[in-house]
Amino acid sequence: MAATLRDVARAAGVSVATASRALNGTGGRAVSPEKQALVGRAAVQLNYRQAAAGAGLDKAVGESARRTYNIGLLLRATYRITDPFWSQVLEGVTGEILRQGYHIGFAYIVDDLSHDKRRRLVNERFIDGLVLMGDMELVDEILGLASTKNIVIVAGSDSGRWESDVRFDVITMEKYAAMDCLVGHLVALGRTRLGFLGPSAQTDRRGDGFIYALHRRGIPFNSDLYVESGFSTEAGYAGARALLTNHAGELEGLVCACDTLAIGAIRAAKECGLRLPADLAITGFDNIPFARDLDPPLTTIQVPKEFMGELAVRRLIERIQHPEWPPIIQVAPTSLVVRASCGEPLTD
Question: Residues 71, 90: contact at Cβ < 8 Å?
Fold first, then answer.
């Protein structure tokens, strides 16, 4: 017996009217993407056809048949899914995927694609799109492997300055104003001899924003107090140790490009015999879960990590449904979180 519209509605868990609107695209209020996906899958699974619906219904069911309703997740090889920043982005991604009626096809780091079986999954036969957690360099690594052009990037760094080559949708966080808030907070506390630990100003706005924030307040920029580094705690420790060894007594504050760097910097400062924050104020960026549990608790920048993950999935589903739309850059807002690592205003 041929499946009816009522069968489709029952299988999708929606009303007959909703199923009709989802498949025909006419009449009444719009159907949410989640319900659209549920109805489309039910129609395909039940092999539902209705001659009276005409070409519009055939097109709707055909599009559902071509979709897998799977989304792949890729993380840059230098990161890990257990990273305190990216794990929270991942929570937002996975939660939104499920809310939208899609499934996670796979979640790999790029190195996993060296295996043939995994590499074959980066294909439109198995996924409708990709969420890349990293930067533009990650895209360049996988473009030769992926047949899908439905890609959204959650960018942690600005490597490659993606806005000069907008080929894909990008979700990132506000950095310039954030660094201005951090520097402004330290200066208001009387700390003007400031150092920076993080990526170069040419590759990331945190470094560029730090220099500009100093300039805006009439504070000379000392390149000797700017140490380029990666984002790990080990890099933070090594960079801060070198800075404090070579410029002992010069620093009143150290601005770190992320909280993991700040964790390493705090350890280095304590090993150098400095009292925090009396001798040195330290700030981070990201507000990872245990930033408030450090000794002293870390002043940092709140980045809406889960929200960025949610935005990525919403944009990817829009991209899947409307491949003709131009790519966009969405910037999530950030805010200053003040804790004890900066201390009270300095006195003479």
Answer: no
